[in-house]
Amino acid sequence: MLKLRFALLAVVSQIIFTSVLYAEDELRWLIPRAMLASTELEIVWQFNLPMSKGESLDRLFLDGNRLYALSSQNFLSCINRADGNVMFAGPIAPAGLPVADFESYKGGLITMVGDKLIEISADFGIKKTTTSVTSRAVCPIVRNDSFFYIAGADKRIHVLKADNKVQVFEVAAENDSRITSVLAEQEFVVFATEAGNVIRIAPDKAVKIWQFNAPAAIIGPVVHDANSLYFACRDTCVYRLGLSSGDILWKCQTQGILDVAPQLGGKLVYQRVPDMGLVAIDKTAGTFVWPVKDGVGLLSESGDKTFVITKGGFVTAMDNVKAKQLYSVYLGLPVKYATNTADAKIYIADAKGRIACLEPAK
What we know:
- With about 350 residues, this protein is mainly beta.
- It has a domain at about 135-260: Lipocalin (Beta Barrel), CATH 2.40.128.
- It is built from one helix and 32 strands.
- Strand 11 (about 145-150) and strand 12 (about 155-160) form a beta hairpin.
């Protein structure tokens, strides 16, 4: 009997020990698997970024097949978004220097560090070039194959040749308004201003193609999809313009003064509205589809479903056909996220550098 008791005690101890180890292992990750039990979401991978004392995750963003994480110490990690493996990592600037928002070009990254234009290689995260910019950039720098376009504090766009960074021309709005964003492709360049102007110019010379005048400041960036441009205006409306003509295709009035640009999905435009949340707007008709109270931004889409992150730390799944909520799962605070429009995968993280990739069950 005594031997049996010891045997039973050993078994129970092993169970408890195993459970504790499992619990501790679960606590290491951002998302315990049990948290998703009532949803269709599954964990694809999780990863913990190495962080030094006092360091935190500052930004999370996607570019193609890569997920980038920038820390408060300006340490940039590039992660394969399919499997969570680190592709490269390293500091891109001394800690404390301001790093502007990133723009991508052919797999590489462009940003401003202080007064320096920095290009980061797509292969190894190595700085390819560093160029001093005389006029402080007021919005992200963009480029195409031929030119860089830098909107300066002097209310002009400085256009530099891509190969040698020599300025070839500059352009400004006729009313000399401050520029809020620049959109550059090989075939066109569009910029917006605080006076409410949206202006298309030729990409290689200071020639205006058309100009649209909204009644208030444009909240950049202007985004495009096929032959349409979309932007938020401080007159409370989201606009859609024809790229070729600049004609207004629709405008959708919200219930607040907008302070961020819209995000584009497959069939919907997503706009955050202060004191309301995230609203979905039909791309074709310009009509409201649904709101998510306290919604912050788009995570991803899966067929006729949209996944939204809220400022309360929830992931909310919305049925776009029935315009109703399917479920909402609490992830905790604070939550960082990356918008993914390529597939249904969801990328979230916390300030500690714990990153998770989720996906709806197939």
